[in-house]
């Protein structure tokens, strides 16, 4: 996609610049990143899969380069869970998936609160009475501080509970990386959550992908059919294209203690390596917190967490 800055009141794309590096933001499409690339005289070198004109026209967050996950991430079984003795029913939130998915922030427009040549602050305020079609029964505000420097793209996510009661939360980001026959993923994890076909987690156990990820050459993106959460992540991963002599390193802060890899065999062009604070359906899993993650914000409390994407070329 082009790095042109489109001027429009309702659907402006914002271009951040630092040297040859570019980030294009689509605040109106779920506060998403639409592209992250280096601009060269002979073309653009993309570090994330860029949004297509069709995805932008359709305002489809799933077609963006990356989008925020808040106030929860991953799936919630049957869109229901019990918290502090009360049933939370998300089945009427307008989500077209069989289970609640990724919160509502990715399906709502964000506001540009601050902007400079190489950074932007995007914000979102949610009140349950205002957004019945994107139901979440807790008021909250979220922010993304997105900044370029000479080395990395840094995204700092913040979430504050505006309700008068405790709020469960999860937070993450959903980057799509270019996937080719030679793409490799390297990361150190301790185990993988196995799933039902939905997919929802059933149990945590070894899997051949754990050793493949840790191998010196990394795991081929085509090696396994994955849509899985990984536990015991050291909060760093690299996605490499050895034949193109380049790679990008993803590193994250706590509580991004879990990693999702989405590398479906049925869609060989898709690859996601996602920093997240919890595994899917964490609110319904009866396991130790260290295995599932997730958190709780008291009224008025906030949390903040960052991740970075650092490109490199050989």
Automatic annotation (TrEMBL):
GO terms for molecular function: carbohydrate binding; isomerase activity. CDD domains: Aldose_epim_Ec_YphB (cd09021). Transmembrane segments: none annotated. GO terms for biological process: carbohydrate metabolic process. This is Aldose 1-epimerase. It comes from Caballeronia grimmiae.
